[in-house]
């Protein structure tokens, strides 16, 4: 079994430990005897829609993100076609925003997005940052997804379903209790950095989505996640407010 | 005027009390005095012959202390915030102490404007701008922009800048007096990098820069393939670098001569600190022989690769606060050693940065190859550190998660090895230092006073 993973703009969209997710996906596949081939995809690269099982798109500093977004916009139709055909995708923070319909800046300009997620983003004043926990029912796990968010933009869903519901933290916009977006096997989220490190249940869910296109439903052999889940539980409890926000 | 006198008296009283109680006091006196007189520093700085500000991401404390030591050896009375208390309160505390002829002030890169709006500097030294705690300093480009605005307040200052850091050199564009320090290609220079990069975008064309070589992170010999932007010629350039177990040798070539330098401090990052401090001293006209002498004996301050001795053990305590710092520390301290016990203590309090995602951007590969006993992960984010190491390829059986500092250090000392290395984030530094001293360890650094030093 072989997994083809495309890492979009690794040299530009690499803010704050995002690349850890690619490492985690590779390791968790390899530990189960699944081969992984990681292909960096960058400016000007032409791509066949069927080539990848899983795509990863991180966030970047403003300037780097500007360079990548122009190219990503050109790749938009290819990316949408790939997702329509069942390719799994994980987009984080800035990458998530770029895949929405548009981004409205503080000065009122509207920057078009790829339009994969039925969602849009508006610039906000105060950055939403801190530890966050969300509930993602379809993972079928009692454990929450935990992470750290740090974003100025507020994202509003226009029909896209959220990745999960906020337990504590701000999520998409700090107002409606939603976090992230889903479309078919694509996931967008504000939980940035090495999101999958303390959420092996989400990592395996992504691997199953990715393998489905080529191999159908794949049973992943269990791994020893004692360290990951103990850390998930400890961090979750430490930042749980006395009375939950939602 | 009355307000200022009151503020100074109150600050000095608190400093005196801190001294009597033997309690830190590197920031509290200044903090209170600034509350009473927000413009306090403006008054305190008047009358100094030279005011030098040292800022940047990594290496501020070592550069500041080394420069202060050189200037003292040159016969000047120097005021400095020698213990890395680099927020405005710490700077004010230093200035509240005994006065001197020269002030060498370490200033936090994120709050530089708060100091330059009151303190006219003669020289501003910028060590480097590396990816740091994102939740405190935001993106590097934004940080560079904030520093640029802060410099406008002190337009007469000469800038001493790191030529190998394109983000830092962009601050010298169009500035009056600029001097650069840099490091020529070394046997350790790399044509490509495994590290996550920022600061590799041309400030003019906003397109990626190309590199002839990298020293570490985005420091190296860069050029823009589209416009004329490139690494400037360094007036103070390190050449012929030799890194050896007993210390580092290199030549500092400057307009008018060359110094042959030897330092007991390990690591290429300390070569940059020496280039910055020695370059500034040469610019100020200090005798070359004085610089050579001080560099040969200077040791970094508390927790900056500070060595402790406990029975037959040799324990190194090192502050790590960002991916470059952690990667370079491991490259320097974890390679070519005998079997070593490692302890990584990671906290996520405000002064550490709340977000520990940066651990995943560090190049941890030296740890994979090092002869070692189990790696102990400690601190509030012990689990995060352990997970990161697990996925980097360290066997889980070789990892121990012991969040409690005292328990973790006792576990470290129970290892039957002579070498131990403790890497910790900011809020763990004093904790581990105290725990070591309580267990009878002796530091090679003479304990500095808690008050700003004057000599």
TrEMBL record, chain A:
The keyword Phosphoprotein does not apply. Residues 6-199 form the CobB/CobQ-like glutamine amidotransferase domain. Its EC number is 6.3.5.13, 3.5.1.2. Signal peptide: none annotated. GO terms for biological process: cell wall organization; cobalamin biosynthetic process; peptidoglycan biosynthetic process; regulation of cell shape. Substrate binds at residue 127. It catalyses: L-glutamine + H2O = L-glutamate + NH4(+); beta-D-GlcNAc-(1->4)-Mur2Ac(oyl-L-Ala-gamma-D-Glu-L-Lys-D-Ala-D-Ala)-di-trans,octa-cis-undecaprenyl diphosphate + L-glutamine + ATP + H2O = beta-D-GlcNAc-(1->4)-Mur2Ac(oyl-L-Ala-D-isoglutaminyl-L-Lys-D-Ala-D-Ala)-di-trans,octa-cis-undecaprenyl diphosphate + L-glutamate + ADP + phosphate + H(+). Keywords: Cell shape, Cell wall biogenesis/degradation, Glutamine amidotransferase, Hydrolase, Ligase, Peptidoglycan synthesis. GO terms for molecular function: carbon-nitrogen ligase activity on lipid II; glutaminase activity. The active site is at residues 93, 192. Pathway: Cell wall biogenesis; peptidoglycan biosynthesis. InterPro entries: Class_I_gatase-like (IPR029062), CobQ_GATase1 (IPR033949), GATase_3 (IPR011698), Lipid_II_synth_GatD (IPR043702). Forms a heterodimer with MurT. The lipid II isoglutaminyl synthase complex catalyzes the formation of alpha-D-isoglutamine in the cell wall lipid II stem peptide. The GatD subunit catalyzes the hydrolysis of glutamine to glutamate and ammonia. The resulting ammonia molecule is channeled to the active site of MurT. Belongs to the CobB/CobQ family. GatD subfamily. PANTHER family: DETHIOBIOTIN SYNTHETASE, LIPID II ISOGLUTAMINYL SYNTHASE (GLUTAMINE-HYDROLYZING) SUBUNIT GATD. This is Lipid II isoglutaminyl synthase (glutamine-hydrolyzing) subunit GatD. It comes from Neomoorella thermoacetica. The gene is cobQ_1.
TrEMBL record, chain B:
The active site is at residue 355. The keyword ATP-binding applies. This is Lipid II isoglutaminyl synthase (glutamine-hydrolyzing) subunit MurT. Its EC number is 6.3.5.13. Forms a heterodimer with GatD. It comes from the Bacteria. Belongs to the MurCDEF family. MurT subfamily. Residues 319-429 form the Lipid II isoglutaminyl synthase (glutamine-hydrolyzing) subunit MurT C-terminal domain. Keywords: ATP-binding, Cell shape, Cell wall biogenesis/degradation, Ligase, Metal-binding, Nucleotide-binding, Peptidoglycan synthesis, Zinc. SUPFAM superfamilies: MurD-like peptide ligases, catalytic domain (SSF53623). Residues 54-167 form the Mur ligase central domain. GO terms for biological process: cell wall organization; peptidoglycan biosynthetic process; regulation of cell shape. Zn(2+) binds at residues 202, 205, 224, 227. GO terms for molecular function: ATP binding; carbon-nitrogen ligase activity on lipid II; tetrahydrofolylpolyglutamate synthase activity; zinc ion binding. It catalyses: beta-D-GlcNAc-(1->4)-Mur2Ac(oyl-L-Ala-gamma-D-Glu-L-Lys-D-Ala-D-Ala)-di-trans,octa-cis-undecaprenyl diphosphate + ATP = beta-D-GlcNAc-(1->4)-Mur2Ac(oyl-L-Ala-gamma-D-O-P-Glu-L-Lys-D-Ala-D-Ala)-di-trans,octa-cis-undecaprenyl diphosphate + ADP; beta-D-GlcNAc-(1->4)-Mur2Ac(oyl-L-Ala-gamma-D-O-P-Glu-L-Lys-D-Ala-D-Ala)-di-trans,octa-cis-undecaprenyl diphosphate + NH4(+) = beta-D-GlcNAc-(1->4)-Mur2Ac(oyl-L-Ala-D-isoglutaminyl-L-Lys-D-Ala-D-Ala)-di-trans,octa-cis-undecaprenyl diphosphate + phosphate + H(+); beta-D-GlcNAc-(1->4)-Mur2Ac(oyl-L-Ala-gamma-D-Glu-L-Lys-D-Ala-D-Ala)-di-trans,octa-cis-undecaprenyl diphosphate + L-glutamine + ATP + H2O = beta-D-GlcNAc-(1->4)-Mur2Ac(oyl-L-Ala-D-isoglutaminyl-L-Lys-D-Ala-D-Ala)-di-trans,octa-cis-undecaprenyl diphosphate + L-glutamate + ADP + phosphate + H(+). The lipid II isoglutaminyl synthase complex catalyzes the formation of alpha-D-isoglutamine in the cell wall lipid II stem peptide. The MurT subunit catalyzes the ATP-dependent amidation of D-glutamate residue of lipid II, converting it to an isoglutamine residue. Pathway: Cell wall biogenesis; peptidoglycan biosynthesis.
């Amino acid at each position: 079994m072989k997994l083809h993973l495309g890492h979009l703009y690794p040299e530009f969209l690499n803010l704050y430990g995002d690349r850890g997710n690619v490492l985690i996906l590779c390791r968790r596949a390899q530990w189960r005897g699944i081969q992984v081939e990681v292909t960096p995809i960058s400016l000007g690269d032409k791509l066949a829609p069927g080539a990848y099982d899983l795509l990863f798109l991180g966030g970047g500093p403003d300037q780097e993100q500007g360079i990548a977004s122009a190219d990503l916009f050109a790749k938009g139709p290819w990316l949408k076609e790939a997702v329509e055909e069942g390719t799994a995708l994980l987009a984080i923070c800035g990458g998530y925003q770029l895949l929405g319909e548009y981004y409205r800046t503080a000065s009122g300009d509207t920057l078009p997005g790829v339009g994969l997620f039925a969602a849009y983003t508006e610039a906000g004043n105060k950055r939403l940052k801190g530890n966050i926990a969300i509930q993602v029912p379809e993972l079928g796990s009692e454990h929450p997804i935990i992470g750290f968010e740090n974003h100025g933009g507020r994202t509003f869903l226009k029909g896209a379903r959220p990745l999960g519901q906020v337990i504590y933290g701000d999520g998409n916009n700090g107002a409606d209790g939603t976090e992230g977006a889903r479309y078919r096997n694509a996931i967008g989220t504000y939980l940035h950095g090495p999101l999958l490190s303390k959420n092996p249940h989400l990592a395996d869910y992504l691997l199953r989505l990715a393998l489905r296109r080529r191999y159908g439903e794949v049973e992943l052999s269990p791994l020893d996640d004692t360290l990951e889940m103990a850390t998930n539980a400890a961090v979750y409890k430490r930042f749980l407010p006395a009375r939950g926000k939602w | 005027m009355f307000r200022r006198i009151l503020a100074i008296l109150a600050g000095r009283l608190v400093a005196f009390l801190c001294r009597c109680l033997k309690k830190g006091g590197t920031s509290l006196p200044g903090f209170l005095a600034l509350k009473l007189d927000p413009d306090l520093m403006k008054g305190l700085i008047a009358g100094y012959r030279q005011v030098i500000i040292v800022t940047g991401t990594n290496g501020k404390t070592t550069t500041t202390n080394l420069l202060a030591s050189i200037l003292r050896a040159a016969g000047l009375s120097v005021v400095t915030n020698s213990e890395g208390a680099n927020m405005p309160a710490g700077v004010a505390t230093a200035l509240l102490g005994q006065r001197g002829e020269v002030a060498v002030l370490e200033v936090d890169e994120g709050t530089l404007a708060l100091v330059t709006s009151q303190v006219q500097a003669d020289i501003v030294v910028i060590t480097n701008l590396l990816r740091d705690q994102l939740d405190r300093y935001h993106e590097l480009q934004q940080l560079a922009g904030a520093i640029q605005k802060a410099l406008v307040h002190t337009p007469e200052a000469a800038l001493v800048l790191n030529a190998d850091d394109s983000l830092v050199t962009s601050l010298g564009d169009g500035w009056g007096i600029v001097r650069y320090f840099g490091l020529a290609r070394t046997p350790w220079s790399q044509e490509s990098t495994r590290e996550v990069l920022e600061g590799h975008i041309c400030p003019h064309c906003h397109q990626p820069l190309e590199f002839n070589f990298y020293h570490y992170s985005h420091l190296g010999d860069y050029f823009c393939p589209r416009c004329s932007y490139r690494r400037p010629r360094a007036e103070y350039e390190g050449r012929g670098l030799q890194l050896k177990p007993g210390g580092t040798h290199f030549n500092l070539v400057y307009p008018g001569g060359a110094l042959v330098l030897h330092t007991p401090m390990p690591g290429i990052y300390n070569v940059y600190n020496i280039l910055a401090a020695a370059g500034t001293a040469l610019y100020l006209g200090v005798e070359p022989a004085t610089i050579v002498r001080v560099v040969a004996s200077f040791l970094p301050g508390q927790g900056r690769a500070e060595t402790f001795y406990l029975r037959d053990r040799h324990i190194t305590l090192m502050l790590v606060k960002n991916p470059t710092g952690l990667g370079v520390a491991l490259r320097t301290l974890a390679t070519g050693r005998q079997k070593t016990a490692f302890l990584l203590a990671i906290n996520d309090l405000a002064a550490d940065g709340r977000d520990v995602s940066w651990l995943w951007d560090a190049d941890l590969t030296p740890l994979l190859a090092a002869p070692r006993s189990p790696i102990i992960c400690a601190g509030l984010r012990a689990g995060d550190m352990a997970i990161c190491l697990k996925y980097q390829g360290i066997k889980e059986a070789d990892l121990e998660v012991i969040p409690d500092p005292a328990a973790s250090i006792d576990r470290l000392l129970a290892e039957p090895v002579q070498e131990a290395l403790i890497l910790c984030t900011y809020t763990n530094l004093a904790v581990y230092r105290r725990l070591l001293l309580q267990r009878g360890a002796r530091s090679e650094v003479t304990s500095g006073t808690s008050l700003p030093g004057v000599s």
